[in-house]
């Protein structure tokens, strides 16, 4: 079976991109493939914002990612540099907001971590 790294570049609110990526990864693990990492870059870092509000009548794609990653043991990595520009920080990174606002199940990482996952994966899939 193949190992896959997934790159997402659109925010949860920007149409179907994230949900399509989620369904792809869900199908891949169901077929026995390994997800090495899901990397959120650009506006996609908003997936990791614990303070984002989801309307009750909309699908919570952030939670879907959290559940899938937890069930299949793969990391959800948001680009730390881009996230900081968007006001999303890990616990301890700000003096006045020690709890941070990074959602559970996500962690901040760098492009080096992403490139390592790409280099050790059979496939890179971009959404």
Automatic annotation (TrEMBL):
Record bears the keyword Chaperone: no
Pfam families: DsrE
Protein name: Sulfurtransferase complex subunit TusD
NCBIfam families for this protein: PRK00207.1, sulf_tusD_dsrE
Location within or outside the cell: Cytoplasm
Keywords from the UniProt entry: Cytoplasm, Transferase
Similarity field: Belongs to the DsrE/TusD family.
Species of the source: Aliidiomarina sedimenti
């Amino acid at each position: 079976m193949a190992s896959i790294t997934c790159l997402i570049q659109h925010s949860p609110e920007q149409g179907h991109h994230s949900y399509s990526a989620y369904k792809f990864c869900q199908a891949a693990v169901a077929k026995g493939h390994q997800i090495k990492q899901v990397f959120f870059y650009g506006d996609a870092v908003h997936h990791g914002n614990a303070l984002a509000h989801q309307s009750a009548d909309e699908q919570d794609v952030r939670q879907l990612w959290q559940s899938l990653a937890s069930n299949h043991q793969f990391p959800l990595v948001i680009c730390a540099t881009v996230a900081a520009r968007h006001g999303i920080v890990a616990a301890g990174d700000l003096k006045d907001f020690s709890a941070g606002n990074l959602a559970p199940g996500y962690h901040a990482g760098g492009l080096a971590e992403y490139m390592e996952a790409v280099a050790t994966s059979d496939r890179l899939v971009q959404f």
